TrEMBL record:
This is Integral membrane protein. GO terms for cellular component: plasma membrane. InterPro entries: L-PG_synthase/AglD. Keywords: Cell membrane, Membrane, Transmembrane, Transmembrane helix. It is found in: Cell membrane. NCBIfam families: flippase-like domain. Pfam families: LPG_synthase_TM. It is a multi-pass membrane protein. It comes from Nitrosotalea sinensis. Its main location: membrane. The chain crosses the membrane at residues 6-28, 40-60, 121-141, 147-165, 204-230, 236-257, 264-283, 289-307. Belongs to the UPF0104 family.
Length: 319
């Protein structure tokens, strides 16, 4: 896996994102968008970003639990850098570009892909699992038939996925292209299956679930503050349901960062709830930049930092 190739793809996806949001803003009417954007209470911006960073920290703790369970020991600092580096690739389809983390583990810690790819997959599973649990709890307080249908389907997929892992029948891997990382996995199917099983052991699974739940709930608070920044006093339940289900749909769409699907879903639910279109679109963009795209930016900065340090280390060793 060549990092240069990944960075080129990231640049391409960034261009596509810029084009999408340009169209998004033009649809909202540039003048109205500008007017709505001026309503933002800037006091909330550092607060939102700060709370979101706390959420990212809990995600990194969850990653450490997964790595420790495989006897891959990283310091807290290394673990955070490692986690944040993966965020640079959130804008790849399905966020699978986060597999760049497995490349670093192989290069720096001599860990095989078959040992580390399951960690990324486990993180994806726990992200969806924790978010679905939060949404399900919220539905007990406010019923929404359409959201309930989607959540029901997600629960079926989550249960089937876990059952497949527990039964050692990872037959879907046979459908993956047998190139690069996937070729290594296919050649070591038994080890891959065993590693996934280790990551779903009760003690590890519960710890990861709890940390994921805290992280998702913390992000839900940040999203609620996004509503308040616009002076929209919706309940915490409403803000969580509207954005949560949209993030789930975006995640399973496998589009880069859920671009388009997540945004239109959030905006659509906001309009359905009575918010005017221009405000709904502006709030959607604000939420996405505060939560999703700020994370990608953090990831890109961390990746550049990690690569620079790696290059400096190599130069020192050569000299």
């Amino acid at each position: 896996m060549k990092i240069e190739f990944n960075l080129n793809r990231v640049i391409l996806f960034i261009i596509l994102i810029i084009v999408f949001y340009t169209i998004f803003i033009l649809f909202a009417d540039l003048e109205k968008f500008s007017s709505e954007f001026k309503k933002i209470n800037l006091y909330f911006v550092p607060l939102i970003l700060g709370i979101h960073l706390i959420s990212l920290f809990f995600y990194s703790l969850r990653q450490k639990v997964l790595l420790d369970s495989l006897d891959i020991r990283l310091s807290l600092k290394q673990n955070i850098i490692f986690q944040f580096t993966g965020y640079s690739m959130l804008i790849t389809p399905g966020g699978l570009g986060e597999l760049i983390k497995t490349h670093f583990l192989k290069q720096i810690h001599s860990k095989k892909y078959v040992e580390t790819v399951p960690v990324v997959l486990a993180e994806k599973y726990h992200n969806l699992f924790a978010l679905t649990v939060i949404i399900t709890v919220m539905l007990f307080f406010k019923s929404d038939f359409e959201i309930e249908i989607i959540v029901g389907i997600i629960w079926i997929l989550l249960i089937i996925s876990l059952a497949i892992i527990k039964s050692h029948k990872i037959f879907l891997v046979n459908k993956l292209p047998k190139i690069g990382i996937f070729k290594k996995i296919f050649e070591n199917m038994t080890d891959f299956s065993s590693t996934l099983l280790m990551l779903t052991q009760k003690k590890v699974f519960v710890k990861c679930f709890c940390l994921g739940l805290i992280a998702v709930f913390t992000d839900a608070i940040a999203i609620y503050l996004c509503f308040l920044a616009f002076g929209i006093h919706y309940s915490f339940i409403d803000s969580t349901l509207f954005t949560g289900i949209s993030l789930v749909v975006g995640a399973i769409s496998f589009l880069p960062g859920g671009i388009g699907i997540t945004d239109l879903s959030i905006a659509g639910l906001l309009v359905r709830s009575g918010i005017i279109t221009s405000l709904a679109l502006t709030l959607t963009i604000f939420i996405r930049f505060m939560i999703t795209w700020s994370t990608v930016l953090i990831g890109i900065i961390t990746l550049r930092f990690a690569l620079r340090n790696r290059m400096n280390k190599n130069s020192t060793e050569i000299s």
